[in-house]
Amino acid sequence: MAEMRVSVMNCLYRLTLLPIAASLSIGATAATAPAIAGFEPLTARSAGTALCSRDQVWCVTAAGARKPLIVTVKGKAAARWSPEAQDDTIQMKPVPHLLRLLDGSALVPVEMRAPVMYSGGGGEITTLRLILVRPGSAPRSVLSLPWKTDLMIRACFSDKDATARAGACHDEYQFDGQLTAVKPTKSGLPALAYLASAQSYPRGASRNVDSSTQPPLKKSDLVWVKDRACSYRRTFRFDPASGRYKPNAALPACDQYSSR
Q1: 87 confidence band (pLDDT: 50, 70, 90)
Q2: Which pLDDT does position 185 carry in this prediction?
Q3: Cα separation, 180 vs 45, whole angstroms
Q4: Which residue, of 80, 111, 219, 250, has the greatest Cβ tally within 10 A?
Q5: SS3 label, residue 260
Q6: 103-133 burial by CB neighbour count: b if 16+ within 10 A, else e?
Q7: Which residue has the higher pLDDT, 88 or 142?
């Protein structure tokens, strides 16, 4: 990959471009929120406070990257959940939605945000986890999904590269997930419809190919291109035997959007 080349010029580009590119990419990620439908919204009374349902029965909060997710019901602690593997670089953030189930339990979505830094670029890769909270039982993760990706990777290391790239000196990758809850069944756990959408820029961008070995770009190549292999639909249903949601078909391998 072009971004892996090491040289004095590489170091200079890193110093000058990294702060700008990384801040632009991460800022764009923070400004948009993937959709969750069929869940009730949660709101906070003020910045830094818990996210709560309108009737104030259910509240969700996470104090930081290494702090557990805390769920309360009617003001009493109902669950404390932490990911199985701790990673100090990953920030856990509750999503302002919750789905109450027929048996008094709830599905609580949480984002696991992983910052990514490259020479002259950066971004963020986010995974969505659904936590099943049953008062009186230990909370557990029942679904993990690719959710949001926004990456910018430098592809120019010289004026020659910039010319060959028609001035497009960064490859960009975006991935968005959407989740919709279907009406709950008698078991209380709904089916979930998942929609994934992926795209890259410019035409031909790939993290699996060294861009410097590709033919020169034309102005007509400076467009966002939908990645059809990584844009797909799936239906997830809860499997009591495994205690997790399972898709109606395997998810495609889309490492260039999910790999750090």
Answers
A1: confident
A2: 61
A3: 26
A4: 111
A5: coil
A6: eebbbbbbbbbbbbbbbbbbbbbbbbbbbbb
A7: 142
d(CA 3, CA 106): 44
Using alpha carbons, list the distances in angstroms from residue 60 to 12, 77, 94: 44, 10, 7
Helix (H) or strand (E) holding 12: helix 8-31
The two structure tokens encoding residue 71: 């769920």
pLDDT at 16: 32
Sign of the CA dihedral with 126 first, then 40, 132, and 76 last: positive
Residue 24 has pLDDT above 50, yes or no: no
Structure tokens at 155: 């592809």
HSE on the CB side for 5, CA within 13 Å? 18
Q: Which residue has the higher pLDDT, 87 or 146?
A: 146
pLDDT at 193: 96
Return the residue matching tokens 């003001």: 75
Spatial separation of the C-alpha atoms in residues 206 and 107, rounded to whole Å: 36
CA–CA distance, 133 with 79 (Å, rounded to integer): 7
Residues 6 or more apart in contact with residue 223 via CB below 8 angstroms: 201, 202, 203
Q: Which of 11-15, 91-95, 186-190 shows the lowest mean pLDDT across its residues?
A: 11-15
Select the more confidently predicted residue: 86 or 207: 207
Q: Phi/psi at 209 (nearest 5 deg)?
A: -130, 140
